[in-house]
Design goal:
Layout (H helix, E strand, L loop, with lengths): L1 H30 L5 E2 L11 E8 L11 H19 L7 H23 L4 E7 L7 H45 L3
Antiparallel strand pairs: 1-2, 2-3
Length: 183
């Protein structure tokens, strides 16, 4: 029971993101021919800026390193194993760190599912301007990294502020002790 409680947040985050990722990819594969695109009726004016497309990627997020899907599969399993190991060792009050780990693990595993079931390809479908086509899993990894970076910055800022306040309080105490000494 303790183990389930320790990993419940991770399992929930990973399940929701992978479910959404796989469902959206399935919708695209079932409803849009390869290299085709879709926009809701009446929003055709968005076509140069945003569209849903059916595309495959054999590399990493955002189309980088094409043809190295097997390396990213091994890397994803390694990242997932490290997250499983460290997740229960993080302080539950560091919710942002736990959320970041869950999003990164979900994104990595969401794309691994595609690689293992689609001949080392990943279904991508979100196309915005000239940016490489991506998917929910890629977004999850990116958002997880942003949360991690922001959270580390925020925590370090708070710790630095607390250390400065402690040092200032010690200086005040020392000054008061010096002022109280007889001449």
């Amino acid at each position: 029971m303790k183990l389930v409680r320790a990993y419940s947040g991770l399992l929930l985050t990973v399940s929701i993101v992978i479910g959404l990722d796989q469902w959206t990819k399935w919708l695209v594969r079932e409803n849009i021919p390869f290299a085709g695109f879709w926009l809701p009726e009446g929003l055709e004016w968005l076509l140069p800026y945003a569209r849903i497309v059916h595309w495959y990627n054999t590399g990493a997020a955002f189309g980088m390193f094409q043809g190295f899907g097997w390396i990213f599969t091994l890397l994803a399993f390694s990242v997932a194993a490290m997250i499983i190991y460290y997740y229960s060792r993080t302080d539950p009050s560091d919710w942002w760190l736990r959320l970041a780990m869950g999003l990164q693990m979900a994104g990595a595993l969401g794309n691994v599912i595609d690689r293992l079931t689609l001949d080392w390809k990943v279904t991508d479908f979100i196309s915005i301007g000239d940016f490489p086509v991506f998917n929910v899993a890629d977004s999850s990894i990116t958002i997880g990294v942003i949360i991690l970076l922001f959270g580390v910055w925020w925590k370090e800022s708070r710790e630095k502020k607390a250390a400065n306040e402690t040092a200032s309080a010690l200086d005040t105490i020392q000054t008061m002790e010096t002022d109280d000494r007889p001449n």
